[in-house]
Design goal:
Length: 432
Amino acid sequence: MNSDGRRASPPPPMPTQHPWHPLTPGTGRFHGLDFLRAAMMLLGVVIHTALVYHEPQVWIYEDPNRTAFAGILVLGIHIFRMPVFFVMAGFFGAMLFTRRGAVGFAGHRYDRIVLPLVIGWFVLFPLLSWSISFAYTWSYLPASDRTIGLAYEKMPLNVDFSEAGPLHLWFLYYLVYYYLAFGLLTIVLQRFGGPIGGWLRTCFKAFDIFWPLRWIRLPILVVATTALMLTMEKPGIDTSESFWPLWHVIFLYGFYFGIGWLAFGDRDLVARLKDWAWLRFGLGLLLLIGAVIMGIATHFSMDAESEQAEVMFVVNQAIQATTCWVLILGLTGITERLFQRENPVVRYFVDASYWIYLMHLPLCIFFPALFRFWDAPGIVKMTAMIALTTAVLLVIYHFAVRGTGLGVLLNGRRYPVWPFTRSRGPEPAPTE
């Protein structure tokens, strides 16, 4: 009983013991990591819009006003975006498994990953096909007769599923593999691998107990990542374009995911990364500039089949691996320093980011095609199209997703939709 005579509420249930690491304090929401994961998804809009303005043409549709900056932007973001995302996905995946158990984890991931993957693909593939059809039809219409209605009448509406790929939803496809693999491995360790789990905990903690070992953590990560990146066919990380998995890519991103999964066992590590975070981030940016320059040089060298191409490829992969891990450490510390408490505006964008990423690809072709004949520098058009695509998807999210059943599927609850209602329900669990 409380001092005022009321019955005290029961304490929250303790999370289940994770076999790879002991329970540690700090089980609240990681606002900074939430933001970081959302930011990596929102950068997908930047990449897929910039590809339209890439010089030279590398995308399924190109604008006549292109810019070399688009190529630099795409390469720079591509180096670190998905590695950062998969580390965050592994961290939050371990959090979810620890708090909900195997059954709750499976059900939650089915709702948030499998259903959006399946439903979203069958919606998005036709939309993307129609966007491409509109783009090319619009580009050939005479200026005097150019209207959206006429383009719709003349554009082909047939959809060819014979060569369909996972689109930009490939990361959800890969997440299913990782959740299955790490979830099953965790269950096996819980039931049969007590000594192994203890050994893993000891090894993981040894890097903190014996401070000299802290200095070798980053080199170990870089060397292991570089070895995996040497299996790529092109400089950087290969892109999945088929439902048939690229196993070398799955293993690479699985390594990032696995480090994130293990890192949840030492939540204090996130707090420690706040120290010297800006220094790590600054070093990461310098490395990123070098990685972009090296990436461009390596591409030219391999295209020209020069004698130094093989050596440059190895060096390029090592620089990119180093860049990724330094940026991951720096961004983790910075975001957790900046967002120690919930910010309503940031939280809104975090909630909207999943929807924006799922639905952005058709609009990243439709809007640039619609403004094809706007005579402006490529960098200006690219920036405007990124802003327009994001703004339109935010409006749709607010009025057609946030307070609907679709919002429940993507965010875990129906949020109040201003100005229709300002009532607030209970906040979703930190793993949502």
